[in-house]
């Protein structure tokens, strides 16, 4: 059994819609046409500098399941570079979490938004909190869903251990057979869809809930999840045993809501540490949910998000 497939699930980064690879781009270079983007606006036209949009990185993981979500808000979904429905890149491209933060700032500036609200899940939650720490004047409110923990130890090690207990090893072995038998090259989309089913079932407390998911994180048009494995491995290798500065977290004076499933692979103590350090943060634990609360308990998820944003549109 080849558990090298696991890093894509572990890193929770989205994935590459892998067509033909393209050359690496210079560090810090962003061509916005390379990124999947979707602006979902209410009937009232968007006034770019007066309306605060809700920006959601990692769109391929959430957007398909969030149809009708916060209908009064202007929402901007995008996929991280090289992942989801964004343009594929060479797997050797030197992505870092810092480059993902930089891309978000370039996007904001190019759109002409003075301030944004942010909603980030898992790794994209790590991008969101780092963006807020680097550009606090640009963020109104921050909604985090089981975000990348504030430090590597002990939380990420615990996540990996829990993942190892929950993964369907027989299903992973079947995917190995797809590759070694040549079936993957004959039916790459079928392979990616099988990979998606395993991923979502691993994340959900009740694996049957995964069948309710409508998002398709592993792209379309002959995707290859293992390209994302290599991208993710590179990002986490460069990230190393991270630890966010407690003093910087204590100085982040903006409203933060963290949603965390009681049965998540990531221990709830990771989110509790964020709340203990962020001065305006609160934690809501969704009972009997794993890592996908918008799929496992969509009514509670939307109610909490709506309540969080109801007082204003993110202005301070």
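Sequence proposed for the structure above (316 residues):
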């Amino acid at each position: 059994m080849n558990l090298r497939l696991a890093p894509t699930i572990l890193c929770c980064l989205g994935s590459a819609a892998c067509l033909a690879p393209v050359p690496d781009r210079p560090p810090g270079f962003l061509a916005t046409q390379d990124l999947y983007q979707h602006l979902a606006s209410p009937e009232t036209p968007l006034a770019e500098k007066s309306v605060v949009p809700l920006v959601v990185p990692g769109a391929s993981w959430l957007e398909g399941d969030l149809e009708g979500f916060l209908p009064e808000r202007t929402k901007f979904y995008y996929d991280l570079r090289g992942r989801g429905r964004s343009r594929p890149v060479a797997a050797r491209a030197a992505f870092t979490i810092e480059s993902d933060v930089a891309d978000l700032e370039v996007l904001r500036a190019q759109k002409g938004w003075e301030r944004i609200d942010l909603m980030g899940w898992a790794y994209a939650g790590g991008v969101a909190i780092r963006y807020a720490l680097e550009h606090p004047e640009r963020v109104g409110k921050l909604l985090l869903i089981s975000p990348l923990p504030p430090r590597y130890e002990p939380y990420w090690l615990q996540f990996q251990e829990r993942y190892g207990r929950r993964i369907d090893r027989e299903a992973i072995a079947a995917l190995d057979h797809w590759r070694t038998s040549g079936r993957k090259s004959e039916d790459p989309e079928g392979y990616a869809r099988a990979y998606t089913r395993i991923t979502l079932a691993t994340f959900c407390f009740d694996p049957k809930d995964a069948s309710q998911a409508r998002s398709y994180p592993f792209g379309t048009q002959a995707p290859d999840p293992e390209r994302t494995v290599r991208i993710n491995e590179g990002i986490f290798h460069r990230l190393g045993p991270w630890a966010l500065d407690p003093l910087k977290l204590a100085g982040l004076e903006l409203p933060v809501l963290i949603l965390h499933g009681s049965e998540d692979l990531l221990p709830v103590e990771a989110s509790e540490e964020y709340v203990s350090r962020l001065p305006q943060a609160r934690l809501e634990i969704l009972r009997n949910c794993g890592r996908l609360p918008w799929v496992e308990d969509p009514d509670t998820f939307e109610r909490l998000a709506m309540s969080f944003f109801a007082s204003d549109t993110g202005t301070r």
